[in-house]
Amino acid sequence: NSIIAIVGRPNVGKSTLFNRLVQRREAIVDSVSGVTRDRHYGKSDWNGKEFSVIDTGGYAIGSDDIFEEEIRKQVALAIDEADLIVFVVDVEDGITPMDAEVAKLLRKVKKPIFIAVNKVDNAMRDADAVEFYNLGLGNYHTISSINGSGTGELLDAIAEKIPAPEEVDLEKKELPRFAVVGRPNAGKSSFINALIGEDRNIVTNIAGTTRDSIDTKYNRFGFDFNLVDTAGIRKKSRVKEDLEFYSVMRAVRSIEYSDVIILVIDATRGFEGQDQNIFWLAEKNRKGVVILINKWDLVEKETNTMRDYEAKVREQIAPFTDVPIVFISALTKQRLFKAIETAVEVFENRKNRIPTSKFNDVMLEVVKNYPPPAIKGKFVKIKYCMQLPTQTPQFAFFCNLPQYVRDPYRRFVENKLREIYNFSGVPITIYFRQK
Ligand code: GDP
């Protein structure tokens, strides 16, 4: 999966373009959990190609003079971390000195760069846009991120540069790829160090092809697995890590590359907004998830402390609550084996494939006993169901009137399915389709 970074000066329309590209609807879903999530990255697909989009603009801070420095940093990071870059400029302003400077940075880059000339709402603006040839970055796309014109063509061009999804051979024995992610100071490095210890059982370093090497193979507690490089592992560039944008970028990238996300939470701080973002991102990417509550040694315990803590975290990850939560201490090395064992289990659960005949026997019985509620006198009849031949668990229920199946019923079916089969830690998708 490719990562697209949107760069440009403030107020050129980066966020509006971002929202268009990721067809942002999650905000509504989020209101259910009562959390406002400030997101500058999203997941989308176009012409069968999947990609993550990052709006670098969300990370600029306050006043004008810091702006320039900040923008320069963001463009530099985008150049390092993204696979494709969309440079947004504003036709009303023409080429500003800042644009020229960004262009100068981008001209040195070998990655695909798309210039999006924004606010082109009419033919006259179209003529004005010609000026942007002078950026020296080749052709440009005119868009109006307000009314959406031109974004389709821009996406066509972008999708063309994104490699087709790899065919994954399910039979092939692949090592689990785990990414350890979490907020700064949650204890990611401590966890990894405690895990791989002094006797660093590194087996090989699988060199990345076009990218930096991402995976490092480990053998620990009798399990073979790859740890996917994250900001926590790579401590070289301290300065970069100070930037929230940088850590988000690393998290996005490592999530893309992993099978299971090991989300480390600082027990003394609890599950916070940023954790929710990462959790959401993992779920969106249909990755397995294990939550580690680290620094458990620091928490004063009474009867039920763990149970209550767990219940609270589950509230915060609703509606996807079928996720293992393990209480650990990287410091005292408590339950580290359990943590890895659980991650391996989630990896296996994610590969669960239920034979169609058995699935029908079981799930048709369930939906027969609890059919979808009739809407306007219409009765939905589910006739057949199956797990789809997809890389991650997805299920189709074929029925006469799929449009009458509402979300609560979908959730009911998902919960039943999770009760019967083991998909712990694994996001699943359920479709209702016309037979
Ligand atoms: P990272 O930024 O997520 O990699 O976090 P670090 O691994 O650098 O840890 C941040 C701080 O928390 C350090 O001072 C660690 O010593 C401390 N720490 C990490 N894990 C634990 C733990 O399980 N218990 C306690 N008491 N402290 C921990």
Q: Can you tell me the overall shape?
A: globular
Q: Distance between termini?
A: 32 Å
Biggest sheet features: 7 strands, mixed
| Mean pLDDT across residues | 82
Strand order of the largest sheet: 8-9-10-7-11-12-13
Helix/strand class = alpha/beta
Bound molecules: guanosine-5'-diphosphate
Low-confidence stretches: 25-38, 58-62, 198-213, 231-241
Number of helices: 14
Order of helices and strands: EHHEEHEHEHEHEHEEEHHEHEHEHHEEHE
Q: Using DSSP, what is the number of strands? A: 16
Backbone CA Rg: 24 Å
Structure description:
It is a single chain. By secondary structure, the chain is α/β, with parallel strands linked by helices. It is 36% helix and 21% strand. The protein contains 14 helices and 16 strands. It has helices spanning 14-22, 26-33, 64-81, 97-107, 123-128, 151-161, 188-196, 238-241, 244-256, 273-284, 305-317, 336-350, 356-369, 407-420, and strands at 2-7, 41-46, 49-55, 84-90, 113-118, 140-142, 177-182, 202-206, 215-220, 223-228, 260-266, 288-294, 325-327, 382-387, 394-399, 429-434. The strands form 3 sheets. Strands 8-9-10-7-11-12-13 form a 7-stranded mixed sheet, sandwiched between helices. Strand 11 (260-266), helix 10 (273-284) and strand 12 (288-294) form a beta-alpha-beta unit. Helix 3 (64-81) runs parallel beside helix 4 (97-107). The longest helix is centred in the N-terminal third of the chain and has 18 residues, at 64-81. Residues 25-38, 58-62, 198-213 and 231-241 have low confidence and may be disordered. The protein binds guanosine-5'-diphosphate. The site of guanosine-5'-diphosphate (GDP) has 16 residues, from helix 7.
